[in-house]
Amino acid sequence: MFTSSGRTSRGANHTFEPHSRGFWIEGNVLSDLECDGLIEVAPMSLRGRSRAGARHLMSVPAIEAAAKDERLLRIAGRALGDGAVPFRATLFDKSALANWLVVWHQDTALPLEARNDSAEWGPWSLKAGVLYAHAPAWALSRVLALRISLDASTSDNGPLRVIPGSHLAGVLSDDEILDLARTQEKVEALVSRGGVLAMRPLLIHSSSKALGGQPRRVLHLEYADTLDLGPGLRLAIA
If 153 and its partner were Cys, which of 88, 103, 159, 167 is the partner (CB 3.0–4.6 Å)? Predict the structure, then answer.
């Protein structure tokens, strides 16, 4: 499904330095055919599927291959270095039949192979058999998410909204997040089909409900500079 050859962009890429804004967009990374293929391998019948999508998809060979595609590794490497490795894959599927909003938040939970006693980690939870813990800022700073738009993201189909630079504030409380959301600049991250939104997990983000029937399917892939974050701290593949 995936080829190693590059593709010529049909439009300008909007590129932002990740350490200052916490996100950037790469246009025209995957072809329409590749997007169709990823949609086909993540069907409604997948184990772990919910109304909003499906989690823990790295066990699907085609999705693992996509996550390790050299084009995506190259994008992840801009923030994480040449050793960037994918560890988690999630499908988000917003449509007229499954329409939801997400309040302003940060992504702070990481999958781990084993529990540890450090006060920096937690609370802990188990999701579909995978152990998770809310992580400290230093660990989350070593992670980057690549969100592949399997459908074009428009102002009408509930796109992701972000607060540029908010990842630099560290792990925040719900009240602190809402305070920033009231006062700071917000940007709609609109991505064409086959484009990729790269973002730091601590970047404050949200999404509204879709206004029409146009779907917005996103394959959310997460990368780290290494799976071994420290003694007894190894990311799980999920």
Answer: 159
pLDDT tens digits for 123-135? 999 998 999 999 9
> Terminus-to-terminus CA distance in the chain, angstroms?
21
Residue range 75-84, pLDDT digits in tens: 999 999 999 9
Contact yes or no for 140/166 (Cβ under 8 A):
no
Residue pair 136/161 in contact (Cβ under 8 Å)? The answer is no
Give DSSP secondary structure letters for 59-102: TSHHHHHHHT-HHHHHHHHHHH-TT-EEEEEEEEEE-SSS---E
pTM (2 decimals)? 0.88
Q: Which residues pair with 125 in a beta bridge?
A: 132
Secondary structure of residue 178 in the 3-state scheme? helix
Taking residue 177's Cβ as centre, other Cβ atoms within 10 Å add up to 20
CATH for the stretch 20-234: 2.60.120.620
Query: Is residue 108 a contact partner of residue 178, using CB atoms and an 8 Å limit?
Result: no
CA–CA dist 102, 105 (Å, integer): 8
Would you list the domain boundaries of the chain? 20-234
